[in-house]
Write a structure and sequence with these properties.
Largest sheet: 9 strands, parallel
CATH class of the largest domain: Alpha Beta
Structural class: alpha/beta
CATH topology of the largest domain: TIM Barrel
Oligomer: single chain
Helix content: 40-55%
CATH architecture of the largest domain: Alpha-Beta Barrel
Distance between the termini: 33 Å
CATH superfamily of the largest domain: Aldolase class I
Radius of gyration: 20 Å
Order of helices and strands: EHEEHHEHEHHEHEHEHEHHHHHH
Length: 337
C-alpha cells in the first residue's frame, strides 16, 4: 500500500470527500486533472458493520485512483474499529479517514461527525480503536475548528488525535455552527499546523490557485484539500500545481474541453448505474454545479433540470458551443463513446 504522500518536497492536493458528489466517476475526473489524494464519500460504520449492500457500493474504486482513503463516520469505537477492519479486508484502501467534521444534522444527531468535537473522550476512543484495529494501514482524520464560536478547540483535538496515532489531519476552517456560511478561519488552521508534528491539510475557501499559494505561505500546512471549487471546476488541481511550480496563472480549459468533462462524467455515470434515466436524474445537481463555469449559466440550468439522457446533454453542448463561438481548433466529439 502507498504511504501518505508527504515529504519536504511535496505538497499534495486532496479532493475533499463530499456526500453525493465524490463518487468514482467524479474522483477519476479530478485525478486526471492532478488531484493527488482521493477520499470516498463518507461511509456509515454501522452500514459496514451490518454489511449493508448500499454501503458496500460506496467503497468501490479503481486502482488508478490510488492513493485513496475510505472515510468512515460513527461514534461507537468498537463498531468503528470492526468496520475499518472489514473495509481494509474488502477493498484494501491506502488509508482509513475518520469523519469528525460533518455538520449535517442526521449525522450529528447520531453523535457522529462534528458532534464528537464536543465529546473528546469518545473521539479519542474512536481514533485509538481504529488505529489499533487496522495498523499498519495509516489512519487520518478530518475535523472542523470547533462546534461553535464559543467552543473552538481544534488545537486540543489535534493533539488528542496525534497522541492516538492519527497519521495526518485535515482541518476545515469553519465551526459546525457555521455550516458552509461565513469565512473559513485560516488563523486557527495555522495554529493547528504549528501545534502538532503530524501533517495538517488545510481546507476551506480554497477557490483558486492564488488562494492555495497564499495559505501555504501564511501557514505551516503540509497540503491542501479542495472541495466545492472542484465541483464546478475540476481542472483547478492542474491550475494550482502549475501556479505553485511556475508562479503563472493557467487559463481554464476551452469551452469544448469543459463540455467534454461534463459528457465524460455523464457517460461514466450511466455505465456505473447500467440504467440511463435514473443515472442522469442523479446527475442533475452535478450539472447545475458545472454550469457555474459556463457562459449563459442560467439558461443551461433551466435545461439541466429536465435532462434524462446523455443525448440530451450532447445536444445542449453542441448548441451551446455553436452559440458561444467556440474555436474550431478544439473540436468536441458529440457522439457517445
Amino acid at each position: 500500500m502507498s504511504a501518505l504522500p508527504f515529504s519536504e518536497a511535496t505538497f499534495p492536493l486532496y479532493l475533499a470527500p463530499m456526500a453525493g458528489v465524490t463518487d468514482k466517476s467524479f474522483r477519476q475526473i479530478c485525478k486526471n486533472y492532478g488531484a493527488d489524494v482521493l477520499v470516498t464519500e463518507f461511509v456509515s460504520a454501522e452500514g459496514v458493520f451490518r454489511r449493508n449492500q448500499r454501503t458496500r457500493e460506496y467503497l468501490d474504486f479503481d486502482e488508478i485512483e490510488r492513493p485513496i482513503g475510505v472515510q468512515l463516520f460513527g461514534a461507537d469505537a468498537a463498531h468503528m474499529a470492526e468496520a475499518a477492519r472489514q473495509v481494509v479486508d474488502w477493498v484494501a484502501p491506502d488509508f482509513i479517514d475518520l469523519n469528525f467534521g460533518c455538520p449535517v444534522n442526521k449525522v450529528v444527531a447520531k453523535n457522529g461527525g462534528s458532534a464528537l468535537l464536543k465529546d473528546c473522550p469518545t473521539l479519542a476512543s474512536v481514533a485509538h480503536s481504529v488505529v489499533q484495529a487496522v495498523g499498519p494501514v495509516p489512519v487520518t482524520a478530518k475535523i472542523r475548528i470547533g462546534w461553535d464560536a464559543d467552543r473552538i478547540n481544534a488545537r486540543d483535538v489535534a493533539k488528542i488525535l496525534e497522541n492516538c496515532g492519527i497519521a495526518a489531519l485535515a482541518v476545515h476552517g469553519r465551526t459546525r455552527a457555521q455550516g458552509y456560511s461565513g469565512e473559513a478561519d485560516w488563523r486557527v488552521i495555522g495554529e493547528v499546523a504549528q501545534s502538532v508534528a503530524m501533517p495538517v491539510i488545510g481546507n476551506g475557501d480554497l477557490a483558486s490557485a492564488e488562494s492555495v499559494a497564499r495559505r501555504r505561505a501564511e501557514t505551516n500546512i503540509s497540503g491542501a484539500m479542495i472541495g466545492r471549487a472542484a465541483m464546478s471546476a475540476p481542472w483547478i488541481f492542474r491550475q494550482i500545481k502549475h501556479y505553485l511550480a511556475t508562479g503563472e496563472l493557467l487559463s481554464p480549459p476551452p469551452l469544448s474541453e469543459r463540455w467534454n468533462i461534463i459528457l465524460d462524467h455523464c457517460r461514466a455515470e450511466v455505465r456505473e448505474w447500467g440504467v440511463e434515466e435514473p443515472a442522469m436524474r442523479s446527475l442533475r445537481a452535478r450539472l447545475m454545479a458545472y454550469s457555474k463555469n459556463l457562459p449563459e449559466a442560467k439558461s443551461l440550468r433551466d435545461k439541466f433540470q429536465y435532462v434524462s439522457s446523455v443525448a440530451e446533454v450532447e445536444k445542449i453542448a453542441g448548441r451551446h458551443i455553436t452559440q458561444s463561438g467556440s474555436s474550431a481548433s478544439h473540436p468536441m466529439p458529440l457522439v457517445a463513446t
